[in-house]
Each structure stands twice: as C-alpha cells, then as structure tokens.
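Researcher: Go.
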Amino acid sequence: MVEDDNTWAESIGAAGTMDFAVTDSDTAAAVGSGVVPVLGTPILVAWLEATTLQVVEMPEHSVSLGVHIDVAHLAPSAIGTAVTCEAELVGAAGLRLTFRVAARNEDGTAIASGTIDRVVVQRERFLSRLQAG
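Model: Structure:
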C-alpha cells in the first residue's frame, strides 16, 4: 500500500550517484534532439531520472513516476566522456517527492542542474488504468 502521510519526510537528504559514459547512441544526433555528436539532452535527463530511482526505496508494489522535470543542460559532453549524475531528495509532500539533480563531466565541469518531481503510485493500479482505456 502506498503511504500518503509524512512517510518520506525521514528520507529527506538521502542521495545517490550513478556513472555513465557517453556513446554514439547517446548523442543529440542519434536521438534526434540536435545535429551534433555530443550528449543529447533527452539522454542526460533520462540518466538523471534513473539516478533519482536509486535514492529512495519504494514500498512493495509501489513505483514512482516522473511528473515534472526542470533541468538546465549547461555544457556539452563528447563521445567517450564519463558523466556522474547525482540526486538528492530535498522535498516530500504526500506522495510527491522532489529531487535536486546535477551532473558533471569527468573533468568536474557542471553539465546539468535542476529538479525532478516524482509521484508514488501503486504499480498494478496504475497499469490497470492503462488497460481500461
């Protein structure tokens, strides 16, 4: 069962990191978000979202869904560049979780910063709504 009280408040401050390497298939040119061979913004945002999933353990039968993304892509990352993504839970209001996210290249250059909001839902209930429509 999904909790809707202050269950998440005790997790504020929890953080996680993930490391990635930019490949040909991660470029703006490959994903259709641009024409240059650098890390595409859609891929960077997906990596940041994946990192938020590492921060808070969901109750059994629950998942969190991304509902709002506010991320600035600050600098390019070439093919072969190692990228570290970070996420920290900074807010919890009912079932809505807010994460501060950031990413940097291997040389320390900040390449992204912002926030991602996720909402906790019961997995099967969510999926049944898709099938009913």
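Model: The two ends are 23 Å apart (CA to CA).
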